[in-house]
Specification:
Two copies of one chain form a homodimer.
Chain A: E1 5-10, H1 18-31, E2 36-41, H2 43-48, H3 54-71, E3 78-82, H4 87-97, H5 102-107, H6 109-118, H7 126-129, H8 131-141, E4 146-149, H9 154-170, E5 180-183, H10 212-220, H11 241-249, H12 253-265, H13 270-296, H14 299-327
Parallel strand pairs in A: 1-2, 2-3, 4-5
Chain lengths: 333, 333
């Protein structure tokens, strides 16, 4: 049986952090054995709200690639590609823009929320408004069966499948393929300050590439139960980011249960719990960090990974574009 | 001194008619000796409001090419190209979309008028709304100095030059070049029914490829002075399409002046004036028609004209895209 195709990826706007690891990187490392997995470094999409800062996007292509390799994404098993290096995606986007109304784009709940968050209002760049159409081009170009997304991204999948149905209907073809969203079963990891979102701008993220000292400093500064003032006080485990992180990363589940009971009862200081978390994170991060340093010394290898991945990806996107052009009768010669 | 570059072209949505001849084709034939002239068959733009009818667009690429060659556009002097075969244009459009706000696009007077005419309203396809950005990509990709336009198209040139200035400012470059609109000094030719616009949908056009019989029939059916009922009545020359056409195509200016005076005085029937117009049009159209028939028998030559023109054009658009990517720091490898 043919392997199913997954399309996933990241905007190269910053190094990847523990939230990415739990939410997606770990799964990609597992999935690469059983699926035909394409991992897209979405620089074109990153530019839609970073167009005035292309150096940031450029630098982070390298950082994100290092993050991928250091967590165990294997370029022999997964195809890592750079979005802007696939001209077919621009062309597909253009054709799909004819199949989507302005009213429909303006109704997209994800984009609406993001527009509000970014305060675009009257200065909304058209490139940002239409990025769901560009995503539809990405997904359909690879004929992805599965697209891992967060719940807030479901409208993107709907938009893609609408375009697929409209295209296939108008051009009387079965060229394009509907995809299925794969919702993460893991809760999103909170920031070190307890904020529901972890991110660079919030300054509450632990990066996969943070040094041992940075990890220590960040964990020691983490929010805990604000009512847990003295060691002897009983503490709350729920909503306590330190325990949330232990839950996510500590493999000694029995030990963790005991720790939680002790904390709830009182007599267990935050510093001790944090020391355990530091140890757990170091067990995870030190081999990642080591591999990252090794790969960072091989710029030629990194370059080769991206060039070769993009080359392999283009074989797929070119084939899809050929079929699309044929369906649209644009195959003149 | 270097020749200046002109970008011009047509949407392949129908055969070209006398209005096109007077308004642009004639000038292109002159300009090709003194300018570096690119003539774009804008199929991608045609699809923005004909996306459900790609066969029409496809068929008319051939028709328009035949029209070009038969009026004397020389592929050795002018570069004829097919828009969809230049992938660089799609990519440039995508980057420019980040530099234009939705509010700005919605203010474009030309697009506003067209949206109203086409009755798009709530079903406005995004592809149609953004076509001025795609035009900016066309113009800047060729670094056109001059763009021949009608007065109603001036907002398109403004939009292009805004994008040029914004791009050059944001990316601290001088890569993109502002262009200059060249306004036609010829009044637009009315339809045979006196309607200010000549067009297929109005069924009031005389095509360059019409047969002698069709031309005769269309001229004999032309509107004249509605008050000129009997031969002996004085007739009006102004606003009389038959005289408008004579003005545009009759090279015997003295003879025409006499005719006009006679018509004004009375005693000259419409049929006689129309017969003169038929003769004048036949003098123009019969060699065009003859050449058209010759070229129509050489599909390989036509194909070669478009492939070779597009190949030459791509050298230019690829160079521009390389420069754009460098300015945007997208030249990763």
């Amino acid at each position: 049986m043919n392997k199913k195709t997954i399309l996933t990826g990241d905007r190269p706007t910053g190094r990847l952090h523990l939230g990415h690891f739990v939410g997606s990187l770990k799964k990609r490392v597992e999935a690469q054995n059983d699926f035909n997995q394409f991992i897209m470094i979405a620089d074109v999409q990153a530019l839609t709200d970073n167009f005035a800062n292309p150096q940031k996007v450029r630098d982070n292509i390298n950082e994100v690639t290092l993050d991928y390799l250091s967590v165990g994404i294997d370029p022999q098993k997964s195809t890592i590609l750079v979005q802007s290096m696939l001209p077919e995606l621009f062309e597909l986007t253009t054709y799909y823009l004819n199949l989507v109304t302005l009213a429909r784009l303006q109704r997209n709940p994800t984009v609406k929320t993001e527009i509000a968050q970014k305060g675009f209002d009257k200065s909304l760049p058209v490139g940002f408004l239409v990025y769901p159409v560009s995503q539809a081009a990405d997904i359909t170009a690879f004929k992805a069966d599965l697209v891992p997304v967060g719940e807030d991204q479901l409208p993107m999948i709907e938009q893609t499948n609408e375009i697929v149905r409209r295209f296939n209907h108008i051009y009387q073809t079965e060229t394009l393929k509907e995809c299925e969203a794969v919702l993460s079963d893991v809760r999103r990891l909170s920031g070190t300050d307890g904020n529901a979102k972890m991110g660079k701008s919030l300054n509450n993220a632990i990066y996969l590439s943070d040094s041992e000292e940075e990890v220590k400093r960040k964990v020691m500064g983490m929010m805990t139960d604000p009512a847990h003032l003295r060691v002897e006080d009983p503490g709350k485990v729920e909503g306590n980011p330190v325990f949330e992180y232990l839950e996510a990363f500590d493999n000694d589940k029995t030990g963790l249960e005991e720790l939680k009971n002790h904390y709830r009862k009182g007599g267990l200081g935050d510093v001790e719990v944090k020391k355990r978390l530091i140890k757990v994170l170091e067990d995870l991060l030190s081999p990642i960090r080591e591999r990252r340093q090794e790969f960072a010394q091989k710029p030629d290898f990194l370059r080769e990974v991206l060039l070769e991945g993009t080359r392999k990806a283009r074989l797929v996107t070119q084939k899809t574009l050929d079929e699309v052009r044929e369906a649209m009768k644009l195959n003149y010669f």
